[in-house]
């Protein structure tokens, strides 16, 4: 059983996650569902969270297993999965596990890490552990696909990032509470390539009471050839690198780095 996830430090994080409009409107779902269809399945999604990508994949007719370290995220995903029709439920399974070291005893045609859980791996050892674990679970000719931020080194340390900014408009929860979220960089750790990111949810309860909930998480950023080197060390060959979920070529101005890798020939 993995150690307690930092996503479980505040029980409402999973609920707030689902209510965040910028997550609901992300265009990566279509990308990952298309890749799942192309693979034919089965699919393993690492860092599946509350099922934002997992559920549409199962609805598309693909067998998928979701792995996450957060008990709260998985519980919310399970509740949503239980509300799906039986054929969808039959195609999806959930497991709690450590992204950096897991063993499910089976292989998959496609392994995905959507929306940057890889950046929660803060050491090279954890990154290598994740890639090696995934490699062991890849079927012959299987693929690993994951995305990370494309970091602009000229602005990554700008002090303006430390100012609190609203990154998601106010949304109303099912129980009537209204939630507004802000984000800022709380600390730069240049030598480690890690930024501490602080989210704040401003909650207005139905009786007018206001609440402020702050949560900090660490994200490690990486550069293109650093990640290509890690993939090469763990037995992959990069077959595509996209700059966004529309499969645009990777360029200076790309918002993302989306790696598509296959098991390298022995």
Short summary:
With 266 residues, the protein is an alpha/beta fold. It is 27% helix and 33% strand.
Strand content: 25-35%
CATH homologous superfamily designation of the largest domain: Vaccinia Virus protein VP39
Mean pLDDT: 96
Class from secondary-structure proportions = alpha/beta
N to C succession of SSEs: HHHEHEHHEEHEEEEEHEE
Can you tell me the CATH architecture of the largest domain?
Answer: 3-Layer(aba) Sandwich
**Are there runs of 5+ residues with pLDDT below 50, and where?**
none
Please give the count of helices: 8
- What does the main sheet amount to? 7 strands, mixed
Helical percent range? 25-40%
* CATH class term of the largest domain: Alpha Beta
Write down the overall geometry: globular
CATH topology (fold) name of the largest domain:
Rossmann fold
The CA-CA distance between the termini, in Å, is 33 Å
Would you count the extended β strands for me? 11
Strand order of the largest sheet: 3-2-1-4-5-11-10
As a whole number of angstroms, the C-alpha radius of gyration is 18 Å
Q: How many domains is the backbone divided into?
A: 2
